[in-house]
Inverse folding.
DNA sequence: GGCGTCCTTGACGACCTCGTGGCAACGCCC
DNA sequence: GGGCGTTGCCACGAGGTCGTCAAGGACGCC
């Protein structure tokens, strides 16, 4: 299901959006201010964000920059202001679309569909095969010796980030940011625990991993 | 250079766009009707298309469908009509953005930048190859004789700075500043140790280095 | 209310990296 | 040729990082 994060401090707008989005099968989170928005974005990983610019605690541009530091999730900006400079600035700091209030719900939903469609990866035939196990990114499934391996949500998330960067080094900060959110960049203990769990479930010899490799002091790397 | 295809049957609009886009370093093609647009898109492979809906020969939706059959190039639609149904339909057949006329040039250019940015490929790997070893900056990987070479974080950091300045002299101060920070500019002993380690790991004859070269009294240089 | 799953947290030992000092070799200048 | 500064090389100790295990706690399900 597509998850939408609505960021707006006006309850009636949030309510209208929630009703309309729910009715069309979207999963809706809502945040009344920038701080909550950044937090929810990190924890819930929405597929698209609808962001009102007139927030009580932060400038809209700051929210966008905070998000763009670690995610490329589509951001659709809502604003009451028609001023050209604001549109330009907002788009240039990383927003994907800019809709002025009052807006037509149909149009907003169409722009939402367009944003999600663009962000959708172009038909991955995403089954990565190693000597020891297989990872199906689309089906979110891991197989080993013919049987499925059960992963917890966090285990899967860590594995997914590594597999999507096959062969490349993923720094500890990057991994923590993508899985736990930007405020967890120092919790390197999590990685030790979860990499160990993944190795125990996937590697033939967990004490000498061949695919989930540690680069001491730098990060981790998935090798096929 | 970014190539833009402008599709519009009004010469003054084409002219205004051409001037503004050229001035900002875009390469501009123009088509006055849908047939020409499809033809030019196929032959010239623009990076983004600006498409007016009021074309003499085809419906705008038909042009978009014709393009979407084989390309995912971003399409920004221009239209004089504010009607919500038209926006919805246009976006749903595959347009990326919808701008109503009269439009502000600044805003259009900002939306163009946003569209191009989204479509940009996620940065390619640049692999530097020498006779003796290879350096993959994106993957943070060094290879030699087919096998990976393990570098410590500091070793990698030193090598990275040198490789990013291939052929150029990097002063000791600059190297120390970039790797250890501004307050270590006098610790030239560090460099001796780490250059020696890198040579031992990478050079065929570490006592006569061919790629990690000392410029006595000045600094170091990486030569392919 | 009990149970199981999952996430978080802390402790500990093994291992490795970094910084450091000493010494020899080399080159340059006087 | 002698003196001096710079560079290459080695070895060692402190501190940090990683893997591992286990316990506590939140949460959802029956």
């Amino acid at each position: 299901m597509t998850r939408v994060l609505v960021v707006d401090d006006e309850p009636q707008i949030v309510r209208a959006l929630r009703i309309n989005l729910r009715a069309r099968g979207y999963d809706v989170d809502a945040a009344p201010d920038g701080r909550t928005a950044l937090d929810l974005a990190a924890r819930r990983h929405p597929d698209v964000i609808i962001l009102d610019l007139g927030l009580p605690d932060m400038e809209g541009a700051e929210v966008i920059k905070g998000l763009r530091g670690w995610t490329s999730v589509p951001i659709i900006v809502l604003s009451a202001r028609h001023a050209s400079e604001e549109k330009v600035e907002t788009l240039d700091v990383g927003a994907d679309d800019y809709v002025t209030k009052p807006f037509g719900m149909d149009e907003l939903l169409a722009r939402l569909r367009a944003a999600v469609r663009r962000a959708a990866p172009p038909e991955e035939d995403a089954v990565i095969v190693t000597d020891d196990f297989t990872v199906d990114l689309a089906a979110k499934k891991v197989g080993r010796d013919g049987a499925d391996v059960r992963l917890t949500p966090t285990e899967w998330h860590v594995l997914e980030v590594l597999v999507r960067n096959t062969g490349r080094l993923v720094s500890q900060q990057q991994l923590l940011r993508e899985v736990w959110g930007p405020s967890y960049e120092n919790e390197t203990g999590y990685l030790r625990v979860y990499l160990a769990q993944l190795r125990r479930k996937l590697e033939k010899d967990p004490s000498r991993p061949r695919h989930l490799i540690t680069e001491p002091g730098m990060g981790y790397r998935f090798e096929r």
Summary: Residues 188, 191-193, 195-196, 199-200, 206-207, 214, 216-217 of chain B lie near DNA strand D (CB under 10 Å from a C1'). Residues 105-119 of chain B form the longest helix (15 residues). DSSP finds eight helices and twelve strands in chain B.
